[in-house]
Amino acid sequence: MVSRIIPVEPFDLVVFGGTGDLARRKILPALFRRFCAGQMENGTRIIGAARTAMDDVEYRAFVAEALIEFNGDHTGCEPGTIKRFQEILSYVTLDAKGDGGWSELAAKMHPGRVRAFYFSVGPSLFGDLALRLHQYGMADHDTRIVVEKPFGRDLDTARALNRSLADHFNENQIYRIDHYLGKETVQNLMAIRFGNMLFEPLWNSQYVDHIQITVAETVGVGGRGEYYDRSGAMRDMVQNHLMQLLCLIAMEPPAVFDPDAVRDEKLKVIRALNPLKPDHVVRGQYLADEEKPGYLEHVENPDSLTESFIAMKLGISNWRWAGTPFYLRSGKRLRARTSEIAVVFKEAPHNIFTEDSGRHRNILTIRLQPNEGIDLDVTIKEPGPGGMRLVDVPLDMTFSEALGPDADAPDAYERLIMDVVRGNQTLFMRGDEVEAAWAWTDPVIAGWEERGDRPIPYDTGSSGPEEALALMHRDGRKWRDIRA
Ligand code: NAP
User: Fold this and answer.
1) What are the structural domains of the chain?
2) Torsion angles phi and psi, residue 270, rounded to 5
3) What pLDDT shows up at residue 405?
4) pLDDT score recorded for residue 359
């Protein structure tokens, strides 16, 4: 199956922070791959902007270096494509907090075409950028702005950020990125649920025993120690990525596949979340191994109470999910890098087979990484003589195998940036969603801060603290293995 490329009208895209890490590693390579795929019509312009003094020639060389370093082994780009891509690039030296460079940027805008401004800078600059775009006449109705996480560190800061953007832009011009939502499998989650008759009738507390969401990393906090120590797994992963996955798995079917209809349903899930009980959450910090330092050494803060691992049991108070627990966990320096959602169905109500046929249930697993795909554990008869012994086997659909290599899906940033250009906000978080997620998260964090709860140490390469395993064991359930 060959993926379809739908070219978009020529557009102007400004990357504020065009010299930064995110621009080099993700945004520019993503734009380049869409360029290679033939999605950008002639006339499209990409403009880097930051304080570092550079001219266009220097910026083009800077971007070419980044592409060579970070574009991986992406094939499909003809030789010479980097050179052609360089021709659509330019650069403006400007300071978000000053006036130099802004008139030059405004002069580069083509009237009457879509313009997008990617705020790939720290959130403290969002308000300054929005204000100056307005002051220099670049904030018209065709303008879109893209903002990165973290979108605040609590409800108050998120509200302040929302206000600073809303002063100059309407909500339908603001694209809050959560790159998890750009993943192929995440979108497939909606296709599976709402495009098939098979699952939706079973998608409720009557048939689903519980749902597990795991986002595990093998890396530690790396060079982000100072930032991470002020944030932790709850703010860095749960409040945004895991919460978004939870919403997509738990939401009601929207009446139409339209950005606001989808986001209305996600918002209802967040608002129906029960407050988290202190004994329903486990926090951890990774220990050193022979090669690498532990969390406390990494962040150079021996007294840190910040978690690099979190596991929790959540409940959703609505008709569909009352009584079905959702178990979420995320952490660093774990056994493998893997992200998956597992929907564990209940056992059949009555066992007609012999008692030694064992306990069996269907599990639908949605793999986000690695090997994006879906598998469904189905119970069948174990082949061969010897009676009716049952065994669970996976019906495995790895997308790259099922759909063929030509179905090579664009990565999350490619898809999301092109959605900005097309004006499709479905996969972006709305302001009220972000605020609702913080409103649920804030009291949980305040609780452990007030109590002075200390995260539990766990071994590098493990599945997190033993207490996280106990969180499920005491309910008679078990986490799925963390494996690549
Ligand atoms: P970074 O490497 O520190 O880059 C920051 C960029 O902002 C640089 O290009 C810097 O260039 C520019 N900048 C700083 N102050 C400026 C000012 N006053 N006016 C104009 N430009 C200014 O940070 P990053 O890692 O790219 O992250 C950017 C944003 O994305 C942050 O909000 C971060 O939390 C978020 N994010 C990053 C990642 C990631 O993987 N890196 C992932 C998710 C989210 P000059 O110094 O030349 O001005």
Assistant:
1) 11-148 (3.40.50.720), 181-410+429-473 (3.30.360.10)
2) -60, -40
3) 58
4) 80
